[in-house]
Structures are given as structure tokens and as C-alpha cells.
Amino acid sequence: MGDEEAPESVAPPAYTLAPESPFALLSSEETRAWYAYMKVQLRLRFEMNRQLRADHGLSLADYDLLVALVSDDEGTLTMTTLATRVGWERSRVSHQVRRMTQRGLVTVGASTTDRRASEVTLTEQGRATLAAVAPGHIDLVRTMFLDALDGERMSQLADSFELIYEQLIEHGTLPRPVDHP
After folding, report:
1. Residue 131 included in any domain
2. For residues 47 and 63, is the Cβ–Cβ distance under 8 A?
3. What is the spatial distance between Cα 124 and Cα 6, in angstroms, rounded to a whole number?
4. Are residues 149 and 62 in the same domain?
5. What's the domain range around 124?
6. Cβ distance 24 to 17 under 8 Å?
7. Is the pTM of this model over 0.90?
């Protein structure tokens, strides 16, 4: 069995839905696409969180905020900008930042340009933590996600997600993050 290649494609599953299910309002292809996305998204986030916690005592929420902060040239974002960048409610970011501050990963202070705003800054410990966890995290992402796609499928998936992202920006409530054109 170890020498067998993975099938080129998997037969589409047939879903039987209760008439009162909200998904009964979708076509068969819409249901298939949505379920496929949800299964991957939920399972992948679970596996990434499990790996980060087991290997480094870091949550996926911690990782998301560290990546957002390190993506800024100065490693500093206002609480509102950070919330927009990761797509969270501002209150969720505030609670997560408070926990990360207690562990020395970030600091919080008044904005230098707007005293009404709070700025979150990545600490050297936060940078070192991110540098330590990144190789294992990227290995997991490759193994569980990227390695399933050949070059053409990866390009198609990227095209599809970029199209969906633009739809989210157009019809969603969050503004476009400054760093994500």
C-alpha cells in the first residue's frame, strides 16, 4: 500500500440533507464546494493549533497576531489595524493581546500619532518565538495542505481564493487591510 499513488481526484460525495437544513437552500455543487471548504478549514486550523501548542505552547491565535505584527516594517500596529488585518473583532484582539503581553510576546501602549488609540508592538521575545515556531509550522502546512496540490492546482486554488477574497472585501464589513492589496 505504501507504493500506491494517491488518486488523481476523488469522486464527489453525495450529501443527503434534511429539508430544514440551511444547506438544503444550496445547489448540489454549492453544497459540495462549501462542505469541502469547511472540512478543510476547520480541520486545518485544529491541526495547526494542536501542533503549535504541543511543540511550543503557542496557540494559533498567538501565531496569527505575531505574523500580522512581524509583517509590519516596525512590528507595531494599532489595535484596530491589527483586528482588521487578522479579521477579528477588536475585543477579541484586545483579550488575546492582553494574554500575549503577560507572556512577553508583545507590548501595548498609547499611539504616538493618536492618543485615543492603543498600539501593539512585537517584542524581541515575540520575534524569537515566531522564528522558533515557523519552520515546524511551515512543514505542517506543506504536509497537510500544499503537498496535496500540483503546480496547476495550486495556481487554480490561489486564483479562486483571491477571487473569493475580493468578494469578501466588496460585500463584507471589514475594510481592506493596508498590507493586503
Report:
1. yes
2. no
3. 43
4. no
5. 27-144
6. yes
7. no
Cα 23 from chain centre:
24
pLDDT tens digits, one per residue of 118-151: 999 999 999 999 999 999 999 999 999 999 999 9
What does the alpha-carbon distance between residue 106 and residue 114 come to, in Å, rounded to a whole number?
A: 19
Three-state secondary structure readout of the chain = CCCCCCCCCCCCCCCCCCCCCHHHHCCHHHHHHHHHHHHHHHHHHHHHHHHHHHHHCCCHHHHHHHHHHHCCCCCEEEHHHHHHHHCCCHHHHHHHHHHHHHCCCEEEEECCCCCCCEEEEECHHHHHHHHHHHHHHHHHHHHHCHHHCCHHHHHHHHHHHHHHHHHHHHHCCCCCCCCCC
Residue 17 lies in a domain: no
- Same domain assignment for residues 94 and 167: no
- Structurally, the chain folds into a number of domains equal to 2
Provide the pLDDT confidence category of residue 9 given band limits of 50, 70 and 90: low
Q: Are residues 108 and 138 in the same domain?
A: yes
